[in-house]
Amino acid sequence: xxxxxxxxxxxxxxxxxxxxxxxxxxxxxxxxxxxxxxxxxxxxxxxxxxxxxxxxxxxxxxxxxxxxxxxxxxxxxxxxxxxxxxxxxxxxxxxxxxxxxxxxxxxxxxxxxxxxxxxxxxxxxxxxxxxxxxxxxxxxxxxxxxxxxxxxxxxxxxxxxxxxxxxxxxxxxxxxxxxxxxxxxxxxxxxxxxxxxxxxxxxxxxxxxxxxxxxxxxxxxxxx
Length: 224
What we know:
This protein is an alpha+beta fold. Helices cover 20% and strands 31% of the residues.
């Protein structure tokens, strides 16, 4: 597994970020720019980006870590810069949802979400067990790989039409819809997942317990 070196930076209010986006596109896949994901950059970023030549507003994206310990250490670096923890850290989804969630343990993971000053969310995840899906994803693509990027949209059906022209295909017949969130995973032939998400104002969650089983299971089917 390739190792993404994530530094815990000292506070420097004069720090300048020289990149417009944390994402690098390579052969249809997305990777993280290691300098951009330092706390100084992410807490100043507008969460506006161009993905696959499409201007978008990023709702959230995932940075993956080898362990929960590494995940929490990275999160600590954001404390001086105004980021807030809004989910976790805990075992997802089993410790987040009170009702029984029909998600096999292979799809569980450690999860923590940080709310940035601009209103975007950064999701941190790590395998919960050797050999689980997150572990295999890291083994295959490395720690710099982006599992998925969620794009905030006004209407997921209309947005899906645009993304289908870019060869992203839905992973389920219909989006997953709850009272708080509407979410839809799409994937391109290279294997990159994007999520289209509608959300109600004031809701900072990256998932709804009514949606999560359908989302995770659609991803499971796509990997088979």
